[in-house]
């Protein structure tokens, strides 16, 4: 469950935790929570609720906040996804995509790191808005249009390199006709411990 005693705004740069802690670690993905649980029983602990949230993850986080929720942009821009991400999305391995990495902050502290891979095909027409979300949660855009549907949720076991990095994650592909984008959510231990 999220920490309730934090009232220091760790999301302001001068107070952010070690930047390495707030970087997305390499992650091994499993088709189901059960499959991941065979490798790491922690997925059946306090993190389980967050790994299985249906609907908007942002909304679930907002319901846990006592004071505030906000999105802090860590990176947004065109760059190359990992080969695994490209393969998962069915796009060419060397093709650039719009990549968005943010910190989802509850009561002033980062609770979740999110990394979203948005292929070029998603960015024309109404999709242009995906490049201009700023601090508005991606979920507000996706869940406002019923044509965007979330696919199955995978469970991730992270390979943290630094103390405090995420250990557990989830991701899913959102599809809208021929368009698809990949949303990964990496749980910081503060969220569930
Ligand atoms: C897809 C959602 O959007 C959330 C917000 C994100 C963002 O603003 O970049 C990224 C991942 C999600 O946790 C959701 O709320 O379910």
From TrEMBL:
<feature type="binding site">
    <location>
        <position position="138"/>
    </location>
    <ligand>
        <name>substrate</name>
    </ligand>
</feature>
<comment type="pathway">
    <text>Cofactor biosynthesis; ubiquinone biosynthesis.</text>
</comment>
<dbReference type="Pfam" id="PF04345">
    <property type="entry name" value="Chor_lyase"/>
</dbReference>
<feature type="binding site">
    <location>
        <position position="185"/>
    </location>
    <ligand>
        <name>substrate</name>
    </ligand>
</feature>
<keyword id="KW-0456">Lyase</keyword>
<keyword id="KW-0670">Pyruvate</keyword>
<comment type="function">
    <text>Removes the pyruvyl group from chorismate, with concomitant aromatization of the ring, to provide 4-hydroxybenzoate (4HB) for the ubiquinone pathway.</text>
</comment>
<dbReference type="InterPro" id="IPR028978">
    <property type="entry name" value="Chorismate_lyase_/UTRA_dom_sf"/>
</dbReference>
<keyword id="KW-0831">Ubiquinone biosynthesis</keyword>
<comment type="similarity">
    <text>Belongs to the UbiC family.</text>
</comment>
<keyword id="KW-0963">Cytoplasm</keyword>
<dbReference type="GO" id="GO:0008813">
    <property type="term" value="F:chorismate lyase activity"/>
</dbReference>
<dbReference type="GO" id="GO:0005829">
    <property type="term" value="C:cytosol"/>
</dbReference>
<protein>
    <recommendedName>
        <fullName>Probable chorismate pyruvate-lyase</fullName>
        <ecNumber>4.1.3.40</ecNumber>
    </recommendedName>
</protein>
<dbReference type="InterPro" id="IPR007440">
    <property type="entry name" value="Chorismate--pyruvate_lyase"/>
</dbReference>
<feature type="binding site">
    <location>
        <position position="100"/>
    </location>
    <ligand>
        <name>substrate</name>
    </ligand>
</feature>
<dbReference type="GO" id="GO:0042866">
    <property type="term" value="P:pyruvate biosynthetic process"/>
</dbReference>
<dbReference type="GO" id="GO:0006744">
    <property type="term" value="P:ubiquinone biosynthetic process"/>
</dbReference>
